[in-house]
Backbone:
């Protein structure tokens, strides 16, 4: 991997602090490669004496490449960086930390599943004299293109939006991800996170409900927009479900909640979405006059439309009076 | 289709991880304690007497406890490193996860004398205490490099909150006032509550996640503080959890356009909405449901179909172990979580502590 082993190079003066193995009753003894032994020997030695130097910074990069889960090497790297930049002018510090951000991005692209990187990056941005959101967006977009539901990347994106206090790009971004995969729940929860922060007007909420309806019309059997729709009503419309939304949900349920379930000959029709029925059941359960409809919805879910959750639907039925 | 638990294969698979490992495993070197714990807890859950077979390694495990000295060279706190590679002078390398794994291993190996030492207990509790973040009550997993402060560049989330609280529990804390000696419980609970999601479940920034949900509920359970959740939220969380079970019945068949749906996943659990089922989420979801006390005769079907999913879809009956799904090779983490889920279903596993019910943690 390396042309020259570190011992032969700039670390010739460092007495390595060797890893001890082969102890009595040792479990999980690993057959380390020579490269690992040598590199870790030098890293341990430098850490023990607290060397904060350019060469130590380079070494941490090598160790991180070899053992990214080595959590304290990240702390060591950060200490080195802080020490090396403490006497720099503002401009020099910006350059230095930008270099570090470039290094992180390069590492991230090669180690997409590593999640230590995101909190490290947060810390660098917090210490940066003039961080820029625009710098972060391309790598975030790239990471989500590769893995559209990566929890750490979505969380970091939301952290960034709050840190930079810039929500301007986000509804559009969430929409582009929903457009790509309407089932992407991370994109839907991102949209809700943004909307809650934007404090939308009544008109904007009306537009939002229409947006959700279009997505549901496209694919009715999709839990994400139904959950989002309920979230919109609870967060912005005081849970006041209007007739329009009830009629909309009923479209996908073949009016099953109007059937007489007591009739032994009743035949349950096929419906387009169990989530629409569940949504209706919730609304119907809120008012005494519609409890019977709620029961029917749960009975339908239990017996035909979503039977794996039968125990849950049955428990709902028994609680409704 | 295999529906029997391949005991012998799994035992072989697990024991292999405790022996000599190839260099391909060296990227896991720093978290070797996790490998040891996952292997031993699984073997123990399967019924192997690990204290008898591996008890002699207890002293070697104890070598992983590092005492950190404050300026007056007085031992102020201590914790465990995941590997002796991290036993480095003048550097804070102990971590909360490795400390928890080591303590659980010592319990499995019945090394009771470790827990009798007041000094061991007090210095480790002091380490836990130091990892609490003053601003929001959450926990980081490690300290800063040279200072007794939470690491400025570590994540702090529900995983580490759970780990911190279980460590305190294993070291003798039982009641709120015991925990309050070391940590700010009110702030911790406020943090946990801040991670509640609208649709039920817990997660960061409003996106619920089964792993975080299990951590949050387990922490509240250890703190005997589940009552701080409203009945409405518990109800929503239960609904969210039961919805994580993947089904190929009824309307669930109408998902042919969903790129993350596979009808063969029937009975398994996913970690989030519209994702494939995954072995480990059977444990995280069922454990959460147990805590919310929804493991009753009425829910038998739920547990039974999860069991069928694990045994027939992710169990490897040739080399042993469980994989994440039906595509990947088995790995130790998913083997451990698969075994734990099955033993939880059988009722012989304490999901909150993540130990077989038979293991005594009282002394």
Residues:
């Amino acid at each position: 991997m390396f042309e020259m082993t570190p011992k032969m190079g700039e670390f010739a003066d460092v007495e390595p602090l060797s890893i001890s193995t082969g102890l009595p009753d040792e479990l999980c003894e690993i057959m380390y490669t020579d490269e690992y032994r040598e590199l870790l020997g030098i890293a341990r030695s430098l850490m023990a004496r607290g060397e904060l130097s350019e060469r130590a910074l380079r070494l941490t990069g090598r160790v991180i490449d070899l053992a990214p889960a080595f959590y304290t090497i990240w702390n060591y790297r950060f200490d080195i960086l802080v020490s090396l930049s403490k006497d720099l002018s503002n401009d020099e510090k910006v350059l230095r930390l930008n270099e570090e951000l470039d290094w992180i991005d390069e590492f991230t692209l090669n180690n997409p599943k590593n999640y230590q990187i995101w909190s490290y990056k947060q810390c660098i941005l917090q210490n940066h004299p003039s961080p820029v959101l625009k710098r972060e967006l391309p790598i975030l977009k790239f990471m989500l293109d590769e893995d559209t539901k990566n929890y750490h990347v979505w969380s970091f994106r939301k952290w960034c939006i709050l840190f930079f206090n810039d929500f301007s790009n986000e509804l559009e971004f969430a929409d582009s991800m929903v457009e790509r995969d309407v089932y992407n729940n991370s994109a839907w929860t991102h949209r809700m996170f943004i909307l809650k922060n934007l404090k939308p007007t009544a008109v904007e909420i009306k537009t939002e409900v229409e947006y959700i309806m279009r997505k549901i019309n496209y694919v009715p059997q999709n839990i994400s927009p139904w959950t989002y729709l309920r979230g919109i009503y609870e967060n912005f419309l005081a849970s006041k479900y209007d007739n329009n939304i009830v009629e909309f949900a009923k479209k996908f349920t073949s009016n099953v909640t109007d059937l007489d379930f007591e009739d032994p000959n009743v035949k349950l029709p096929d419906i387009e979405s169990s989530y629409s029925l569940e949504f209706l059941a919730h609304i119907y359960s809120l008012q005494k006059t519609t409890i019977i409809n709620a029961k029917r919805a749960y009975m339908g879910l239990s017996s035909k439309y979503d039977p794996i959750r039968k125990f849950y639907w049955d428990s709902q039925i028994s609680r409704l009076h | 289709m295999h529906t029997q638990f391949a005991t012998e294969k799994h035992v072989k698979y697990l024991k292999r991880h405790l022996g000599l490992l190839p260099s391909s495993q060296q990227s896991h070197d720093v978290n070797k304690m996790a490998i040891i714990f996952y292997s031993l807890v699984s073997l123990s859950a399967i019924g192997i007497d690990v204290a008898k077979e591996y008890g002699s390694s207890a002293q070697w495990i104890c070598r992983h406890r590092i005492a950190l000295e404050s300026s007056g060279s007085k031992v102020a706190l201590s914790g465990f490193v995941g590997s002796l590679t991290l036993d480095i002078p003048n550097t804070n390398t102990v971590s909360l996860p490795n400390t928890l794994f080591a303590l659980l291993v010592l319990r499995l190996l019945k090394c009771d004398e470790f827990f009798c030492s007041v000094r061991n207990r007090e210095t480790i509790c002091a380490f836990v205490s130091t990892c609490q973040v003053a601003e929001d009550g959450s926990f980081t997993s490690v300290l800063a490099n040279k200072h007794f402060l939470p690491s400025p560049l570590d994540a702090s989330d529900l995983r580490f909150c759970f780990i911190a609280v279980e460590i305190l529990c294993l070291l003798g804390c039982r009641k709120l006032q015991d925990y309050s000696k070391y940590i700010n419980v009110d702030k911790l609970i406020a943090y946990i509550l801040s991670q509640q999601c609208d649709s039920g479940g817990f997660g960061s920034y409003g996106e619920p996640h089964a792993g975080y949900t299990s951590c949050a509920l387990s922490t509240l359970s250890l703190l005997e503080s589940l009552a701080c959740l409203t009945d409405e939220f518990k109800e929503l969380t239960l609904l969210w959890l039961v919805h994580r079970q993947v089904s190929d019945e009824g309307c669930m068949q109408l998902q042919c356009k969903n790129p993350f749906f596979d009808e063969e996943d029937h009975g398994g659990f996913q970690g989030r909405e519209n994702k494939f089922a995954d072995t480990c989420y059977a444990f995280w979801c069922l454990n959460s449901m147990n805590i919310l006390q929804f493991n009753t005769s009425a829910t038998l079907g739920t547990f039974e179909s999860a069991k069928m999913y694990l045994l027939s879809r992710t169990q490897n009956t040739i080399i042993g172990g469980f994989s994440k799904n039906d595509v990947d090779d088995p790995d130790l983490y998913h083997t451990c979580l698969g075994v734990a889920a099955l033993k939880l279903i059988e009722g012989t596993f304490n999901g909150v502590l993540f130990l077989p019910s038979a293991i005594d943690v009282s002394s």
